[in-house]
Amino acid sequence: MSKSFWGVIIAVVIIFVGIFALTGNKSSNSSSKGKAGTLTQHVEGQGKAGVTLVEYGDYECPFCQQYYPTVKQVVSDLGQDIHFQFRNFPLVSIHRNAFAAARAAEAADQQGKFWQMHDALYENNDPNGASGWVASNDPSTFFNQFAQQIGLNVTQFKQDFASSKVNDLVNADMAEGNRLGITGTPTFYLDGKQVQIGNDVATFEKIIKAEIAKKAPASTAATQQ
C-alpha cells in the first residue's frame, strides 16, 4: 500500500481520537459544574399569598445585623402569607470571617437547624467588630459553642463545616448573587424584583402587603372558577 493511503488512515484515527477526547472533557466539566452549582433553599413561612421575600445576606455585615430584628418581626407578622428565603452573600473582601459564618449555618442545616444557627450568628455579632466571632482569628471556636447551644451533634457539625459540600453551597449562592449584580448586603428581592426597603417594620410590611394585594384578585378569581 502507498504511503499516502497510510497517511489518510492515520489522519482519520487522529480526528476520531480528538473528537472522543473533547466529548469526554465536556461531559466531565458539565457534571462538576452541576454539582457545585446547587443553590441553597432556606425558606420559612407558609406563603399562602404566593409572595416571596429573598435576602442575600452576610452574617458579619453590620447593616445585615441591623436589619435582622426587623426582618424577623416581619416574617413573624406575615409568615402565613409569605415565604422568606435567605441566601449567602459573604463580602469576603471586607469581612474576613463572613464566609466561615456562612459555612457554619450550612453545616447546621445538615442537621436541620439552619435558622437556629442563622439567628445565633446575628445575635452574637458585635457590630463594632471588636469582640466575639467577628474579631476572632479562629471563629470556629465560637461556631462550635453555638452548635452545642442549639443542640447539634458537634462532632458531625465540625465534619460538615469542613466539607466540600458545605463549601460548594456557599459558593453557589455567591455565584448567583454575582450573576444578579449584587454588590452589597443586605439585598432584598420581592417576587423576583430587587427592592430598596427602609429598616423599619412598618415600611417593610407596607411594601409586602401591597405585593400581597396585587395577587389577591388572581387568587379570588381562581377560587370562584
Structural overview:
- With 225 residues, the chain is α+β, with helices and mostly antiparallel strands.
- The protein folds into two domains: 1-36; 42-215, 3-Layer(aba) Sandwich (Glutaredoxin), CATH 3.40.30.
- It has nine helices and five strands, in the order H-E-E-H-E-H-H-H-H-H-H-E-E-H.
- It has helices at residues 3-36, 62-78, 98-109, 114-123, 132-135, 140-149, 154-161, 164-180, 201-224; strands at 42-44, 51-57, 82-88, 187-190, 193-195.
- It has a five-stranded mixed sheet with strand order 1-3-2-4-5.
- Helix 3 packs antiparallel against helix 4 (114-123) and helix 3 (98-109) packs across helix 8.
- It is globular.
- Mean pLDDT is 85; it is low at 5-35 and 219-225.
